[in-house]
Fold:
Amino acid sequence: MNLVGISINHKTSPLELREALHLNHDEIVTFIPRLKESLFSEGVVISTCNRTEIFGFPKINEFNLLPVINELIQFKPVNGIQQGHFLKFFSCGAVRHIFSVASGIDSMIIGDSQILGQVKEAFEISEDLDFAGAVLRKIFDTAIKTGKRAIKETKIGEGAVTISYAAVQVVEKIFSNLDKKSALVIGAGETGELAAVNLRDKNIGKLAVSNRTTERAEILAEKVHGEIVPFQFLKEQLHNFDIIISATSSDNYIISFDDIKIALKKRKNSPVVLMDIAVPRDIDPEVKIIENVFYHDMDSLKIIVEQNLQKRKDQVPLVQKIIIEEMIEFYGWLNTLDVVPTIKTMRSFFEEIRNDELEKIKNKVSKEDYLKIEDMTRRMMGRILHNPTVKLREFAETGDNIKEVTAHTIILKELFNLGEAPLNGNESNEDEHKEDRVNEKE
Amino acid sequence: MLQPIDSLNILLPILYCLVFAVYLYDFFNEKKFVNNSKRIILFVTLLLHLFYLISRTIEFDHPPITSKFEIFSIIAFSISFSYFILELLTDIRGTGAFIILFSIVFQIASSLFIEHNFVVPEVLRNRLLGLHVINALLGYSGITISAVYGLLYIQLFKNIKANKFGLIFNRLPSLEILERLSYYSAVIGFMLLTIAIIIGIIWLPNAFPNFSYFDPKLIGTFFVWIVYGIGILRKLLGNFYGKKVILFSLIGFVFAIMSLIVTNTLGKTFHSFY
Structure:
């Protein structure tokens, strides 16, 4: 199988280059016809904020990946990009890389859950543009299966690996039912938004947003179906919330020790969680000495993130084992594609023998006898080859007992010296499959 | 019947150790298979223990409350049984090892020193006494479990405050759940203790001619009952949150233990049967 691919990702290049080379959906749709025209018979373009990758089956056998890199750079010119920024993959290595990407072990944040959807989407674009055949479909189906297995069978996706999610994880260790709790997110920037979305995803009972710029607070509040606490009344409202997450860009503390002390008194000392995920900090860290106040800042939350990342790293060998299992399964399937050409070759081989022998007696018997012999030998061949043909075809169609299919095919080739059936990534084998099925019906 | 009783007497500490080992293994390793099977092992152990207690009652013709070591076996059973019910109700499975440890201690002590008591004072064969003692023991088991959850709460509380996100943080349920478990255990313990006190007040004056309301054990138990009663009432009235509830449970437990030690060793009481 002659699958090839290139990849520029977080391991090979800086963020600026990856960002500049990123292809959005429309750009991929425009780029694929260029690949189709000159380089690949079928292929897939995966582009996320951390990687841009192109995989495909080349139109010619002697293939150099340089034209693919050049095509990409021509399509999206980026200053400072070099060949060294690209990884190159061939055949088995390419399949393995696709499976690794889909399972999240090649991601910048190991176990990233978004990549599986992105891989799926990339393949769907290729399918829509008629740029994907049976083998490529099988590769990506298996890649998605690998990704799902990795999530289900290992802990590769478990644990908070972002600060805002780690904050929610700590909150969950303090309160049991978030749906009965109220939370206030101060700051409507990227971090605040992420925290608010995470809380909403955890079905927080009441969610409010406060921001110096009211418009931004309104946008975020609308997005997370939350309320707005006017920034000027923030301190008077603190006691109404069990969880306060602060992520503003303020240079000074916006919540002081006394603010919390007063709020806690109003709450009759009911526990409150303060998550200060701003740099510089928004809440006076002295509040941590107050009983029933759980205060955490970036440094403490980073501990959780690092621990969880390490746990995910420890799961990589388990995911690699799944990848190997799926590769064995995939290559087994690939080998079954060899069955139909083998059947054809076998039938041709016997047909040739029959024709040879008929040719030898053609002038030695009467025309009437010749026709009878011809008819008899045809039926004989049909009966001899019926069972092996049907059995092999059954094997190939069901895809079961892959090892058995491969073994039968090899034995058949060895016994009758049938030679190698051609196998590559294009659809010829699949076409033969279909053609043969049609013949059988006829 | 003596043969199975003797066999179970040896087997029960081993089974409790096995249950403890499985719960502890799951606490450290969190394996799905172990997580599902540990409850079954505990259930089987409790069934065998119940069979053992019933067998003793039938064989010796009295409830197994006639010696300290019979009582210990009931305590071991009631602690694990209470935990089992709590686990079934809440589906919180990560705290078993800490509770079952108490059952191991009591059952080992019981199995080592228990004797076959065929001859016991007639008063100890009374069914009301059996009910009184079993309720009291279940009540004390409840407050013991409440204290264990209290200690786990304090541990987790300290870990979160000190930014220690290790095993305790990862494996224990949330503070709110630990608080609830501790509180509910205390409530159940308090209710059973109330029943034991009521039965005692009704029955004891008839059974013992030298009965006195100033008996140290009675006063001690009543004092413990009052401490828990105040704590539960304050929680019900909404004045108690988080660590305060836990501290009250722990203080109540310390009072209960002190009361038992003092009344059983120092005080002179009609209330001592052994």
Summary: The CA atoms of residues 49 and 92 of chain B lie 23 Å apart. The interface with chain A takes residues 156, 160-161, 163, 165, 169, 173-177, 180, 238-239, 241-244 of chain B (CB under 8 Å). Chain B has a mean pLDDT of 86.
